[in-house]
Amino acid sequence: MRGILVSSTVTACAAALTLPFLASSPASPATSPERPGARGSVPAALRPVSVPGSTQSLPLVTLGTADRARVGGPAKEQGLPQQEVEPFSLVGIVWDDATAELRGRAQVRTRAVGSGAWSGWQDVQTHDDDRPDLGSPEARGGRLRGSTAPLWVGASDAIQVRVRPDALADRTPEGRSLPAGLRLELVDPGVDPAPARGARAAAPPDLTEEELASSTANLPLAPLGATEIPALDKPASEADIAAAGTGGRRTDDPAETTDTTDTTGTGGLSDIPDLGELTIPRVTDLVEEAADSAEGADPQDDSVAAGGRYVGPRPRIVTRAGWGADESLREKGFSYTKRVRAAFVHHTASGNRYTCAQSSSVIRGIYRYHVVSSGWRDLGYNFLLDKCGSIYEGRAGGVAKAVLGAHTLGFNSNSMGIAVLGSFGTTNPPAATVKALASLTAWKLGLFGANPLGTTTLVSAGGNLFKKGTSVKLKVISGHRDGYATECPGDRLYGRLGAARTAAARLQGR
User: Fold this and answer.
1) Residues in domain Peptidoglycan recognition protein family (predicted)?
2) Contact indicator for 149, 89 with CB cutoff of 8 Å
3) I need a labelling partner for 362 at 20 to 30 A (CA). Which of 143, 185, 272, 324 fits?
4) Quick one: angle between helices 302-310 and 431-447, nearest 10?
5) Is the previous residue joined to 33 through a cis bond, with omega within 30 degrees of 0?
6) Among 461, 348, 474, 335, which Cα is nearest to 409's?
7) Runs of H (alpha helix) within 410-487
8) Tens-digit pLDDT string for the chain (510 aa)
9) In 166-194, which positions are buried (b, 16+ CB within 10 angstroms) versus exposed (e)?
10) 3-class DSSP state for residue 362?
11) Buried b (16+ CB within 10 A) or exposed e, 212-242
């Protein structure tokens, strides 16, 4: 039996900003509504008073003569002239057809809250290849939109936008370079969760149905309502194999792409009709059960035998409750793939102008942009890392489990996506970030018997580098560009993957 220490419960969310709209515009911003039924069947008295964060959505317009003269753009340039809006911190551009590309250059300049100083023009990465597979249930739902990468600009209250099409794009067989329905998305990530009080596990009435499901998926690694999953040494971490659900499965089976989806709406809690009837098992009992399961597994099963020897120490992981996820935004239920054969490393291309104290806000902004603006079922990445080396839980479903993400178009099945907050085309990733990447992959890949220094075979679901159905040999720790023709994760971060592989293997004891 191994002990577990956890932080305390999540408190109620802070109120959203309600500053007035400051000036008229060509198109008034619309605040994106939450999807009907996103809230669980929790009595109104038990729900948070308000939900933090909001999204303003403004259609782009063809710039007039005066605007074109000021910014030097062509006649077909779209954008927005300078205008005041409600406060926001993250910006992106979306359009109607998720399969269409924006072939051009998108730039924004923003005015900082408080100082009133305008930034210079900043590029928004127009190609966002971190997304769901187009043939997946997530894509077939009909909600997906095309989207740029999000850009973190900090607290701002005014913006100017220009989107210039490529000069020769309209002569290409694909047709127009600017897709239909271009809209500017301005995301306010809301206020950080209040500091946790005490060190007890949350009681069910403190959690909404979605919060309960998300937190339950991390049992027995942490109690309900925990804001972090604690670090463990290597021997104790081996019991996490049971939480991964790998017992009885071999890691040398052919790659599988069939996904299993929990559609109960409660993330595996279909037998819980009412929160008041929930009986919470003691965490110590669950830990003993997980350890017993690992010890009693078939020694001939490679996934358990190899994993038992080579699971790296579990690093500290900030949970979704810890960074303040609004669980009512995502779709109910969780989607799982068969196992985790590979880790794809990304950068968010959201810029490096954030402090470590703002990391949770950046993640909430990306989460809201992925779900509300882009139409995804949840945050796309399985994990996120910041410049100080902190590790954050991404898509809900359990950090030890094989949660199906939306991160590497064509290779989301049987893999996990790890995104580093920032842009690393010309900026070196901090040493703390590379160390965190090694720690996370040593632990999570070890649960599934994967060697960080090895290779694996995945089957492409279709992309611009490999046709659908192609079996592709990849490094177990790969960059996004290894599976898709893209600059992600940036040359400087990509160049550090070799060091991360070596460090991860060493942490596994190889």
Assistant:
1) 315-463
2) no
3) 143
4) 150
5) no
6) 461
7) 431-447
8) 333 233 333 333 333 323 333 333 334 455 544 433 333 333 333 333 344 799 999 999 999 755 444 444 444 899 999 999 999 999 999 999 988 889 999 999 999 999 999 999 999 999 766 678 777 788 777 789 999 999 999 999 999 999 999 876 444 444 467 999 999 999 999 998 876 554 444 444 578 999 999 999 999 999 999 999 999 999 999 999 999 985 433 333 333 333 333 433 333 333 322 323 233 333 333 333 333 333 333 333 333 334 346 999 999 999 999 999 999 999 999 999 999 999 999 999 999 999 999 999 999 999 999 999 999 999 999 999 999 999 999 999 999 999 999 999 889 999 999 999 999 999 999 999 999 999 999 999 999 999 999 999 999 888 888 889 999 999 999 999 999 888 999 999 999 999 999 999 999 999
9) eeebeeeeeeebbbeebbbbbbbbbbbbe
10) helix
11) bbbbbbbbbbbbbbbbbbbbbebebbbbbbb
Count of residues for the chain? Answer: 510
- Cα-Cα-Cα-Cα dihedral sign, residues 297, 298, 304, 310: positive
Q: Are 99 and 135 in contact (CB under 8 A)?
A: no
Measured distance CA(398)–CA(379) in Å, rounded? 13
Q: What's the token pair of residue 258?
A: 């069939």
Q: How far, in Å, are 213, 371, 377, 510 from residue 445 at the CA level?
A: 24, 27, 25, 13
Q: What is the CB neighbour count within 10 angstroms for residue 3?
A: 10
* DSSP label of 118: B
Task: Count the neighbouring beta carbons within 10 Å of the beta carbon of residue 118.
Answer: 15
Torsion of CA 421, 427, 431, 436, to 10 degrees: 20
Element (H, E) at 71: helix 65-71
- 497: Cβ contacts below 8 Å, ≥ 6 apart: 345, 475, 477, 478, 479
Query: Are the CB atoms for 215 and 226 separated by under 8 Å?
Result: yes
3-state percent helix, strand, coil for the chain, nearest multiple of 5: 25, 20, 55
List of residues 6+ apart from 106 with CB closer than 8 A: 93, 123, 124, 126, 148, 161, 162, 163, 164
Relative to beta strand 78-95, strand 183-188 is: antiparallel
Q: State how far the Cα of 444 lies from the Cα of 438, in Å rounded to an integer.
A: 10
Q: What is the pTM of this model?
A: 0.79
Which token pair is 221? 């690694």
Q: Single out the residue of 318, 213, 224, 348 nearest to residue 280, CA to CA.
A: 224
* DSSP three-state, residue 122: strand
